Amino acid sequence: MFLRTALSLLSFCLLMLVSPLACSQDSGKGSSQQVRQAQQKEQLAQLQAELVARQQVLKNNKASAEELEGVLKQSELEIAKVAKALSSTKQSLDKIKDEQQALQKEQGELKTAIRQQQSLLASQLKSAFMAGHYDYAKMLFYQEDAKSFERVITYYKYVAKARQKEIETFRDNVARLEAVNAELVEKAESLARLQDEQENQRAILLTRQNDRKATLNKLNQTIASESQRIASLQANEKALMDAIEKARIAAERAAREATITLDGLAKLKGQLDSPVKGRIRKLFGNRRQGQVRWKGIVIDGAEGDPVNSIAPGKVLYADWLRGFGLVSIVDHGDGYMSVYGHNQALLKQAGDEVRRGERIALVGRSGGQEFPNLYFEIRHKGKAVNPTIFIN
User: Fold this and answer.
1) Count of C-beta atoms within a 10 Å radius of residue 152
2) What rounded mean pLDDT belongs to the chain?
3) Among 61, 176, 256, 334, which lies 20 to 30 A Cα-Cα from 191?
4) DSSP reduced 3-state for 306
């Protein structure tokens, strides 16, 4: 009777520990999630109405190219903000999923250990129950077998100690299982919240991109003639040259004050990885339009893919630039700089130090691009050099 009761008690404990997770996960999907989704839908509806109104104003008025550039800049900066948040949410989702998998693995191991300990304790309880019929008084007064008696007592002390250790381990595992169950419920709630947030960010991003597309179409219609396009390209190139010159001066000043020396890129020719995975369009030196020539290359990529720094350095410029969209300029020392344009979002700010292969931006279509790509330049002392001679 005693044995059956003990086993039943242990089984009941195990069942009570395993069952709360499913109940807790169901209870996590409550009214708070519905309220959150309703607020997100309202936010999206307000944004859509606002952007429709903006496009209607542009349609009714003959906006100049300069005014449209301003609207395009604002659209792309807003897209960058959402894209950056979406990228961060994706990373958080991946992290929580990894943590959730680790906890689920630990949960399974704990359940297995508890079942094994339950079986072991049951066997020990059974042994203790059977040993209870031994007449210790007879052993005590049966002096002819004193050595045997001493061995039996030593054995039971050992068994009792081992049993106590198993009980403590069992209790520790039960406590840890309770904690793991609670953590899994928390991770499930965080996962659901982040997934809602991600869907909302995607919807906002799509809305912003549609607004940008409409603005870009209007801008292309305004800059219609060949001469206007050449003038626009020249203005874009001048804006980039001005930004590069400011970055070069800042790099020289930083080099004089720096405690760490950057070695430049001269020794890395043919050894650097492409900043983006994708097809490289070797445009350097080719005629672009009129007398304007390509000073860099274009690498086709998937929107939102990471843009990586080709070498260690320091970010000198990170901002929107007409014709090139969101641009990052990295100083690598010894007069070498790399330029990354057309980004969807910038992940590093001016002044940040970066490692080789570190994410600095996301592939995009900023600067009026129809398809996602990276515009990439390498400059040495302000002069453009062919980037393909550095890429492996």
Assistant:
1) 15
2) 77
3) 176
4) strand
